[in-house]
Amino acid sequence: MNVIKYISGIFKGIISLWKGLMVTGYYFVHPGEIVTQQYPENRKELKMFDAFKGEVTMPHNENNEHKCTGCGICEMNCPNGSIEIISKSVISEDGKKKRAIDQHIYHLDMCTFCELCIKSCPSKALVWGQEFEHAVYDRSKLTKILNKPGSTLMKGVE
Amino acid sequence: MAFSIYDLTSFNQWVDKGLNSVMSPLWATITEMAIIGVVFLLFYAVVGLFLVYAERKICGFIQCRVGPNRVGPYGIFQTIADFIKLLMKELVPINKADKFLFNLAPFIIIIASMMALAAIPFAKGIHAIDFNIGIFYILAVSSMGVIGILLAGWSSNNKYSLIGAMRSGAQIVSYELSVGLSILTACIMFGSLQLSTIVESQADCWLIFRGHLPAFIAFLIYMIAATAETNRGPFDLAEAESELTAGFHTEYSGIKFAFFFLAEYMNMFLVASIAATIFWGGWMPLHIGHWTGFNMVMDFIPPAVWYLGKTAVIIWLMMWFKWTFPRLRIDQLLTLEWKYLLPINLLNILVMALVVLMGWHF
Fold first, then answer.
1. pLDDT tens per residue across span B148-159
2. What DSSP line would sit under B106-165, residue for residue?
3. Subunit contact A24:B65, Cβ cutoff 8 A
4. ipTM exceeding the 0.85 mark
5. What pLDDT, on the 0 to 100 scale, is given for residue B5?
6. How many contacts, defined by CB atoms under 8 Å, are there between A and B?
7. CA distance B230 to B11
8. Residue A33 CB coordination number (10 Å)
9. In this structure, which topology does domain A55-153 adopt according to CATH?
10. Contacts of residue B320 in chain A, CB cutoff 8 Å?
11. Residue ranges per structural domain of chain B
């Protein structure tokens, strides 16, 4: 019986090795299976996946309106103080004084991409941007003002 | 024969006569040796650089990557850039290392593979020394390389290097046996150890077809054992990056490391060219029986192309093995040799002897 076991062991070994060789051989003759991204060359057609955390952005609609009410919850939630909210008071149509955003300052150089600001925002004013080429020669360029100049609060967002 | 148009013997004789007519026979011999030495050194460097590139590309494709592709078109100058970098790097001196042996080890490895290269028949007329015991000579000098590995491991004064060197020693002592026996199986068919005779006797049919089953088994065993003998994956226990950092060449840097690196690839080339010469007919074109037209067409491809093509295919096989199989443990390595390859090999020799005796070959 040992002899049979020995010989069948040899053939089983050869078959299983051959299976492995077939897998790598398939990849060798199919260059289409290559998954490496040719980064600087494919910059134009490169599309990052949806969950990618590039930078915090505040989307604006076509009327230059955003959803940020200036409540400051993101500033409070930020663990290392990457967000500064400068608010102002505006007088609404019915004559009431109301708090509104003046500047939403975002320090990308300090951001740890923890997503707490985006998760805690009650009006969903912040989303992840897909931009990732953040290298600059001057650190101050990484301090961004997220709300565009002259933008206003979107109607219906409280 | 048709391939005589590619025969370089007359050219060699013309060079020999020319040299002898202008200088004394001693100086003529010395000049010839110098020319051959320079040619082999250049060949060594070119083959080494090319194989490193080929290995990285093949490994890349097998792992769904693209491999080097930045230096030059398709990255073909990558290894040249690496080599220039290695030449300019600092040679780090090791405290408490055995300085003499430490510096000697890379040279022993290089010399072993250079000496073996001398007996390889590249094409008709391109054959530095045609010993009547060519195969035996190649086996003898190529196994000298292990002394270099052992010296490197010992003189580095480093545990990892020593473990790597000892593993390499155990491995080569075992697998040398399989290499020798599988080549012996082939030599039963040829009745000669002279490499030129071996190639000539495969003019009608390569050994792997002529000796059918026993020759094929011998070829498989040779491939496994030769891969182990060159310390390549899946038998690269002597280096074993994940366990021993780099094994026997951990402490080497710069050009000394490059020597080990080049020698590894040159050994692979040597082993592949021995396999090509013995089993696939060396520079002999593919001839099929009485198909005269087909044989004529095959003869028009130069022998050097046949030789390099066969060697390249075998090198590709070895790289395919390396990037497919995981590394063996030392006990598995020795089990494979002593419990499987060796008994099968001995049985195979008997079968081959029977085949030759009864004339059951083509």
1. 888 888 888 888
2. HHHHHHHHHHHHHT---BTTB-S---TTHHHHHHHHHTTHHHHHHHHHHHTT-HHHHHHH
3. no
4. no
5. 63
6. 35
7. 35
8. 11
9. Alpha-Beta Plaits (3.30.70)
10. 21, 24-25, 28
11. 7-88, 101-358
